[in-house]
Each structure stands twice: as C-alpha cells, then as structure tokens.
Design brief:
This protein has 130 residues and is mostly beta strands. Helix content is 7%, strand content 20%.
Amino acid sequence: MRYFLPVALATTVIGLSACSSTTHHTDTRSPGTVLQGRLVGPQQMTLYVFDHDISGSGKSMCNGNCASNWPPLLAPSTAQSIGAWHTITRDDGSKQWSYKGKPLYYWAKDSKPGDTTGDGVGNAWHVAKP
C-alpha cells in the first residue's frame, strides 16, 4: 500500500512517498500529492478543478454525464479532513475530495500519469495546483 504526504509536506520533502512502518501515519495520509507543480491522485493521474464549482460551497456542479467525463476524486465515507483537503457530499450521496474548497476531478481522456489533456477544456477545466 502506498501512502502520500499531505501536500504541504510533499512540496518540501521530495522523494518520500511512503511513511515508516509505524501506524500513526494513517491519520495524516493525504488523498493526493504534488507532482511537477500540479495536484495528482494516488495513481499520479492529474487532478482538475471546475470553474462552475463555487469554492467552499461543499457542492459539486459536475454530476451525471459530466461526472462520466470528469470522474470525481472519491473519498471513503469515513474520510476526515487533512489540512487543506476536505470532503464534500455529491448529489448521489458519495463523498468527494476537495482541495482548498474546490472539488477535484480526473479527466477521462488522460491515459497515463503526467497527461494534462483536460487543461482548458471548455474554458472551464484547469489543472489543480497547490
């Protein structure tokens, strides 16, 4: 199992992607990290924000067909806030991670880590940055 540092730590402690074998780290595990100046999910796929989401509202404006193209970064129902990472409840009742109040999404057309093909789509989607 891989563990990710909170974004604030990941930007200052480069090269550490796993914690020691002690169990205290599970309370500070982040749903993503920073890679080359952008937020990425656990599999290092680029994360995006949507201009139509109102920061801090606790709501995603991307549901239904939109969420098929822009899958949300889902959180377990028991997820707790970690620094700037919080959860919101989606229209379908599932939990989604947000960063600094903005819900986070993947782009279905990104095929490998490092892809950023969703940046600028519809002039409303942008690579998420710390």
